[in-house]
Amino acid sequence: MSLLFDFLGTTAFSVITWQEVLMIAVGALLIYLGIAKKYEPLLLVPIGFGAILANIPLAGMNADGGLLHYFYFGIESGLFPPLIFLGVGAMTDFGPLLAKPNTFLLGAAAQFGIFGTLLGARALGFAFAEAASIAIIGGADGPTAIYLTSQLAEHLLGPIAVAAYSYMALVPVIQPPIIRLMTTKTERVVVMSDVKPVSQRVKIIFPVVTTVVIALFVPAATPLVGMLMLGNLFREAGVVERLSKTAQNELINIVTILLGVSVGSKMSAAEFLTLDTLLIIALGLIAFSIGTAAGLLLGKLMYLLSGKRINPMIGAAGVSAVPMAARVVQKVGQEENPRNFLLMNAMGPNVAGVIGSAVAAGVLLSLGS
């Protein structure tokens, strides 16, 4: 019997706290949302499982030499997010943006949520580095949020990553009410002209020129923008199909697993269960909502200046949640007018938002370093 008691004393049951039990439940909830609700399953499932592993006492998963400690190297070194961007670039068609370059402004306008929330977070007492990391949630780009936070405020990585990916997953829930509130029936039924094809030459030149210009203006954005554009060059070059397919499939899938589990590893009870976590989640929602609203406001201005030929709803797609935000615009547009197909027009500001959030992160990183 004494041996049995001795064994029980070595189990995690003997030392586990209610806070760790709660965080294990949170990890299980993320897994549920990913599987049952299909909310960003490729990331919520590994993040949730990583959170469970991080809150098992005595397992030493996060300790020096522990498994998650080695996984986390990819975030700590800034390696994983640029590799994700490489894969995203290989999967992205910038044709709609290049066909209608004016939609780039909508992607830029949506970043207003980032800088507006930065001021709000500073007013609440967060240091600049922490405020910048919280504000980047407004870009609705998980890898960008992770990259910036790992560089400026690593201790906030868990709640910021969860908030960023949660709001990305909830785009179909959050954006439609904002769109309907800020636009009229007349504006929502506007049918836009088709997006014309763009030549391969233009598509090849675009990633090269974009990288050089952005890297010169915002050097800190180079890792993200450079990898995004390299992936896109693989896609459009037509001579490196193997590299393009690897970036789109095997590479991004492997990195996604490692990235998700690593993010989950920062969701230990000690780091996650704080008042700051609740503030971060609330500020993230505000940032995302402001970004959506700013894109819509510029969309309404472009609607008027274009002689009512631009549907202002495409401004909501200026956030970086690709392609979910564009699909939301398409869905709301068809509810108003079944003959209206806005998806390709909305993809222009949507992919512009990916670039815009990366540039915004570079600016914040430069200011916070």
Structure write-up:
- With 369 residues, this protein is mostly helical.
- The chain has one domain.
- 72% of the residues lie in helices and 0% in strands.
- The chain has helices at 2-10, 18-35, 41-54, 67-71, 73-76, 80-91, 95-99, 104-109, 112-123, 128-135, 142-152, 157-169, 171-182, 185-188, 200-217, 222-237, 241-264, 269-272, 275-305, 324-336, 343-368.
- The N and C termini lie far apart (59 Å).
- The mean pLDDT is 90.
How much strand content do the residues show?
under 5%
What sequence of helices (H) and strands (E) makes up the elements?
A: HHHHHHHHHHHHHHHHHHHHH
Kindly state the percentage of residues in helix: over 70%
Shape: globular
Number of domain modules: 1
Please mark out the parts with pLDDT under 50 across 5 or more consecutive residues, or reply none: none
Head-to-tail CA distance between termini: 59 Å
Radius of gyration: 21 Å
The count of β-strands is: 0
Oligomer: single chain
- What's the story with the biggest beta sheet? none
**Mean pLDDT across all amino acids:** 90
Count of separate DSSP helical elements: 21
Structural class: mainly alpha
